[in-house]
Amino acid sequence: MIVIKGFIEMSMLDWEGKMVSTLYLPYCNLRCPYCHNSGLVLNPEQYHSIPIEIVIDYLIRRRDWIDGVCITGGEPCMYEELPDFIRRLRDTGIRVKLDTNGSFPDMLQSLIDESLIDYIAMDIKSALDDKSYAQAAGIKDENIVERVRKSIEIIMNSGVDYEFRTTIVPTLHTKETLTAIAESIKGAKQYVLQAFVPNNTLDPEYLKITPYTDEQMQEIQQVVLPYVQRCVLRGV
User: What's the confidence (pLDDT) of residue 210?
Assistant: First the structure.
């Protein structure tokens, strides 16, 4: 059963160029050490549950102001009920953006096939080799790289608008790492480089890490640009 554990009524940060409502779903199959939603991943019961009826009522009343809904987490694609959940939202006439880590390609394909999502933002945690991904995702899963590659292919061939994104953590990501990621999404419409913020991280040791400077982030951006149609910095 899907339970909403966070509801931001209006946000201009979660879907570029749009005013959206953002819904947070609990739990995740990954344990990224730098994750800033650690409470939502590990102990979501500490947060109040929000009935979907409240969200739907709000969307109907604010339909002239809200451009869409962003479904994030956690990892929304963990839930078998996600298609039905999205259908209830779309019944209000609202557009839907999905945030995902790309480790559930079959669910992603199903949502695309049923035309349930209008925009996909997929996180790519690191270079697509087992060692790098295990370190950045915080788990050992021999199939995760394969599933992430499949999701990349699905998204780039879907006809649905999208972006890929990576949170840049100095201990995990170098220019070489980002070059490897960019090569794996060569030709992508948009790649977003997000500045790491040492706040409420899943692994407390990551609170001690100093983020890259704005200048360093811009240097990484220049390394990535030849591979993708557009590269955007966020949090810089």
Answer: 96
CB 178 within 8 A of CB 218: no
According to DSSP, residue 25 is labeled -
Cα separation of 45 and 162, whole Å?
Answer: 31
The Cα–Cα gap between 188 and 163 comes to 8
Q: How confident is the model over 3-23, as pLDDT tens digits?
A: 999 999 999 989 999 999 999
Task: Return the amino acid letter for 123.
Answer: D
pTM for the whole thing?
A: 0.96
131: exposed, middle or buried (Cβ count in 10 Å: 0-12, 13-18, 19+): exposed
Per-residue CA distances from 196 to 38, 72, 116, 185, 218 (Å): 15, 18, 31, 21, 14
Backbone angles phi, psi at 196, to 5 degrees: -65, 135
Cα distance between residue 24 and residue 144, in whole Å? 23
- Region 71-98 average pLDDT: 96
What is the three-class DSSP state of 22? strand
Length of the chain: 236
Q: Which H or E run contains 150?
A: helix 144-156
Is the bond leading into 159 cis (omega within 30 degrees of zero)?
Answer: no
Q: Distance between CA 122 and CA 174 in Å, rounded?
A: 20
